[in-house]
Amino acid sequence: MKKLLIFFLCISLWSCQEEEKKPSDLLNFVPPHTAAILNTDNLEEFSEALQENSYLNNNKEFPLVSFFTEHFTNLEYISVKDKSLLCFSRIGKKEVALTLISKEKPSIKDLSKVANKKILSYTYDEINVEHYTLEDMEAYVADLPNLHVVSTSKLVLENIIRIYNEPIPIDSNLKKIYRVANDSKASLFFNYDAMMKIYRDYNVKAISHLENFTDWSVVDLDVNKDAIALHGVTQTDPKEKRVLSLFKNINPLKSTLAEVVPQNATGYFSFTYDSFENIETNLNDFHEKVKVENKQAALFESAQEIGIIYQQEKPVLVVNSIDESITKDALLGSQEELSEFRGVPIFKYEHPKAFSQTFRPLVQLQNLKYYTVLDHYYAFAESASALENIIANYQNRTTWSAKKSFQNTLNKLSSESSMLIVGFNEEFYKSLSSYLKEDLQKPLQDIKGSDYESTAVQFIYDHNFAHIHVISQKANAQNMSAGSKQLSSIKTEDKISGDPFLFTNWRNKHKQVVVQTSENLLKAYSAAGKLNWKKELDGNIIGTPQEIDIYNNGRIQLAFNTSNKFYIIDRNGNDVKPFPLDFKSPITQALSVFDYSNNSKYRFVVVQGNKVSMWNKEGKQVKGFKFSKTASAVSQPPKHIRIGNKDYIVVPEENGTLHILDRVGDSRVKVKEKIDFSNNAWYLHKGLFTSSSLDGKLIQISESGKLTQKNKNFTETNRIDATSNTLVSLSENELRIKGKEVNLDFGLYTAPKIFYLNNKIYIALTDTQTSKVYVFDSQAELLSGFPVYGNSQISIENIDAKGRLEFIVKGEDDSVLIYQMN
């Protein structure tokens, strides 16, 4: 589609010219039913500012952005440096006319690229009208004395001519608001009712609480490379019922709701009041009803702020109490405890419609049956699970108030609000898309707004008008949280056995969240919590299943064993033939998987007490593997280690013997000494086979078989993890990362685990006694936002195949939590 304003202004230069006189006020010629007016003294400068904004640049393909930046602000061929009004008028369903009204004719830069011009003319009400066609675009031009008009609509242009000849009164509300505009800046005027009519053309869900919100508004537009700011006023007609007028005779207060808004929320809305009596009177007047006794008046009188948090679960209403004792007394009749989540009781609320009956249209939630208490915040919801998300993030301190970037945004607003509306951009767009018709849903979901974390809209009511502030700014990297936020919680119905793990869906590269339940069901969920499949197993999985690519074609499978069977399954949980393999005597260690040359010629090692067998991917035993039996039981799964171009298989025995074999099972490194093995596996670290002993020593063995012991004063329960260059150890509460010590609180910790992702090292461990997950960097620094809630070892991956990392952890006995790392 061609750039509309370029077309307007180019063709205007071909139209008739008359002697210019002092122009009339452009406002007199604004078309009826206009929804928005852009008022600038220099459209060219304003266009350049828009084109430099990083947010608009990153979303050029979104229909609204492309309409705004391409159709009338791309001034490649013309220069508009004088006062003009650009009007948007709804002339039919999904049909908006664009009309430029200017004092001076714009100057042209270059017309050489303009082709396929067609000009027709006709007379309307004694005024010559030029009808221009440029390829697939049309416009109508009229040069009136002292006025230059271009419109995409013949109807609108002819209507302006009639107004010119027979003036009609200007909308009195528009006239009042026009007087307060700042002439030194670009201003946007918009009529709320007219804008809502355009919105209804594209939405599929009604938003009744947005009706009759206000009348005409004006905001000054301040657009630069890294921020979009709007500041202005909106006026309400005192003769009409308007939502903003509900705050008459009420002083605005500071909003602190962000302290309880989870970082996985899509947005929130809050309003404040210093007098429940006054806001109740305003609400009764709005609905034209007589005041009656309100059974929850004491609860509402104890509040200074009420807000609604929107999230993937059902929304949650939050009361910010100024006097907790009064609030608690008001809820004495609602003390039935229905459940408990992470030590926080969830109660039954006996008046589920009280908020909507009292505060409609500000509150529409009808069935708030549950509530919980978090310090001076009282949260109400239609489901207990919605409250669980609020509790989890409040305890984890992963709320929006903890983000410096969001605090920077709030600092740009006034300290006190009548109403505050905040959308957390990426999640907000996804949620908003469900309200729009199909052709706009995907473009909205695809908006790139991660750098612009939030958009805040603030209203501060004064006599028959309110101040408006809108801020959306790029978050500086140093102010963006490096911690985590809980994205979702997956309920498994049954108790989880062992740790949850991830399994790649090779079709979309997303990771499935897999758990084994106490009923020996293997269940796989999407990150959104949808059950993809379930599979019945003969017993508990031993160890952690491993991903393989058995056909070397990118189609990932999962390999594991129980005590009686060796399984390989595909992404849908189906057995890969000829598996599973049955074993008569019990399997005692986790399955070992070797891919010596990374060519999918897998070898699988099964341990049954002191017996060792190797199998190929065809399900046949490898006869050439000579190592089949040990003197005592094998104490750990055999492990493959590669040094240079040599392969080693490490097999420890309970009697202290360590075998280091070659590929065929012959001894490759002879270790003479007996070792008092700990529970730690063997690793390659600094070119040496490395583990630890029960008596607290670090054991290292060279390729020649030389054994060295370093006294690290580890306890018997010491745990280590290692890579070629990084060694991590945990002894009681002392965590060491590359020699740097961290003293943790005493607890029951999982073994530390090293993750190397995106060229960064992360070290994770969980205190299962206090349900805290810790993640450190390679410098032994705890990442901000940690610890968070969890009850198992975690697994970090790029679960959704997008930019950020996520991790999973067991939550309650029947839930898996998914966190995002920022």
Notes on the protein architecture:
It is built from 15 helices and 53 strands. It is α+β, with helices and mostly antiparallel strands and 822 residues long. The protein has a 20-stranded antiparallel beta sheet, sandwiched between helices. Strands 23-53-52-51 form a 4-stranded antiparallel beta sheet, covered by helices on one side. Strand 21 and strand 22 form a beta hairpin. Helix 14 packs antiparallel against helix 15 (438-445). The longest helix is centred in the middle third of the chain and has 13 residues, at 384-396. Residues 1-24 and 70-77 have low confidence and may be disordered.
Q: Mean of residue pLDDT?
A: 86
Give the number of helices: 15
**Shape assignment:** elongated
Radius of gyration: 34 Å
Strand content: 35-45%
Q: Indicate the low-confidence ranges by residue numbers.
A: 1-24, 70-77
CA(first)-CA(last) distance: 39 Å
Q: Sheet bearing the most strands, described?
A: 20 strands, antiparallel
Q: Tally of extended strands?
A: 53
Concise account of the structure shown:
This protein is an alpha+beta fold. The chain has 15 helices and 53 strands. The longest helix is centred in the middle third of the chain and has 13 residues, at 384-396.
Write the layout of secondary structure elements.
Layout: H1 4-12, E1 34-40, H2 43-52, H3 54-58, H4 63-71, E2 78-79, E3 84-92, E4 95-102, E5 107-108, E6 117-124, E7 127-134, E8 137-144, E9 147-151, H5 154-165, H6 172-179, E10 187-191, H7 192-202, E11 216-224, E12 227-235, E13 267-272, H8 276-287, H9 297-301, E14 303-310, E15 316-321, H10 324-330, E16 337-341, E17 344-348, H11 354-359, E18 370-374, E19 377-381, H12 384-396, H13 404-411, E20 419-424, H14 425-433, H15 438-445, E21 454-462, E22 465-473, E23 484-491, E24 496-504, E25 511-517, E26 521-525, E27 531-536, E28 546-548, E29 557-561, E30 565-569, E31 581-582, E32 592-594, E33 603-608, E34 611-616, E35 639-643, E36 646-652, E37 658-661, E38 667-669, E39 683-685, E40 688-692, E41 697-701, E42 707-711, E43 719-722, E44 727-731, E45 734-737, E46 740-743, E47 753-757, E48 760-767, E49 772-777, E50 788-789, E51 795-797, E52 805-810, E53 815-821
Antiparallel strand pairs: 1-3, 1-10, 2-5, 3-4, 4-9, 6-7, 7-8, 8-9, 10-11, 11-12, 12-22, 13-14, 13-20, 14-15, 15-19, 16-17, 17-18, 18-19, 20-21, 21-22, 23-53, 24-25, 25-26, 26-27, 28-29, 29-30, 30-31, 32-33, 33-34, 35-36, 36-37, 37-38, 39-40, 40-41, 41-42, 43-44, 44-45, 45-46, 47-48, 48-49, ...
Helix pairs in contact: 14-15
